[in-house]
Q: What sequence folds into this?
């Protein structure tokens, strides 16, 4: 059955690793370790189980290391309550939310805390709106800065200057329309800077090649030689 998900396990030393095997229309095996510590393996329809097991066994050390990394640095938070003490993520680092009562609504990053002032600190929708506004402001500033930096590189390869929109998206870090407009996800400011640069560079290269052809990847490699490592790091994050 093509859409069936099979749960399998491998042994790596004393550690047992479970993973979800998903058959799909692709040419190569892909492994994704998510912040919720789930491991998804996407395999071509015609792959034999023995081949998949062998490939997973060879990557077991990497999977185990990635699980440790995700568990240590990027634990999946519970659904946000927007109360003091909660963890927020900005540029790949964790900060604590501190909600204070004040007449004027404001937000500011101080040390390892995001301090949010609101007239009523029990009004969670207002706290959420203030946090969202802070993220959006940071996104406009940060993504704009790195877009300029990346554009300086791609322009040397004949890539035009883009029209850009920054907004919240549920399923994508970024996109590029056929008309040459790049859209970047506000939540992109939650991931490390080197991952931000990868997403922006990826979308900029689509302005010249609106596909994932060899020419596209050749351009991406010229503009960002280590893009594969950056993409691997980005795959450790999941849009919530």
A:
């Amino acid at each position: 059955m093509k859409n069936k998900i099979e749960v399998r396990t491998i042994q790596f030393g004393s550690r047992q690793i479970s993973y979800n095997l998903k058959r799909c229309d692709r040419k190569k095996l892909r492994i994704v370790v998510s912040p919720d510590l789930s491991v998804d393996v996407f395999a071509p329809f015609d792959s034999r189980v023995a081949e998949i097991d062998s490939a997973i066994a060879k990557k077991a050390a990497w999977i185990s290391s990635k699980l440790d990394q995700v568990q240590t640095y990027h634990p999946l938070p519970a659904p946000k309550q927007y109360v003091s003490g909660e963890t927020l993520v900005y540029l790949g680092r964790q900060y604590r939310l501190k909600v204070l009562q004040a007449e004027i609504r404001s937000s500011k990053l101080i040390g390892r805390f995001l301090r949010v002032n609101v007239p009523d600190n029990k009004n969670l929708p207002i706290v959420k709106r203030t946090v969202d506004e802070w993220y959006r402001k940071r996104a406009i500033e940060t993504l704009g800065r790195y877009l300029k930096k990346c554009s300086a590189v791609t322009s040397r390869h004949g890539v035009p200057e883009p029209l850009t929109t920054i907004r919240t998206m549920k399923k994508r870090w970024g996109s590029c329309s056929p008309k040459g407009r790049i859209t970047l996800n506000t939540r992109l400011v939650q991931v490390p800077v080197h991952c931000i640069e990868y997403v922006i560079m990826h979308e900029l290269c689509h302005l010249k090649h609106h596909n994932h052809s060899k020419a596209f990847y050749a351009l991406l490699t010229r503009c960002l030689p280590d893009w594969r490592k950056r993409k691997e790091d980005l795959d450790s994050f999941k849009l919530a």
Remarks:
- The mean pLDDT is 87.
- Residues 103 and 119 are 5 Å apart (CA to CA).
